[in-house]
Amino acid sequence: MKFEHLKIELTRFEGIKCMYSLNLIFLW
C-alpha cells in the first residue's frame, strides 16, 4: 500500500517535471 502510494507520487512528480521542461522549451 505504501509502495503504491509512493509510485503514484513519483509518477505525478515526473509529470510535473516533464511539463516544466516543456514550458522552458517553449519559453526559448
TrEMBL record:
Protein name: Uncharacterized protein
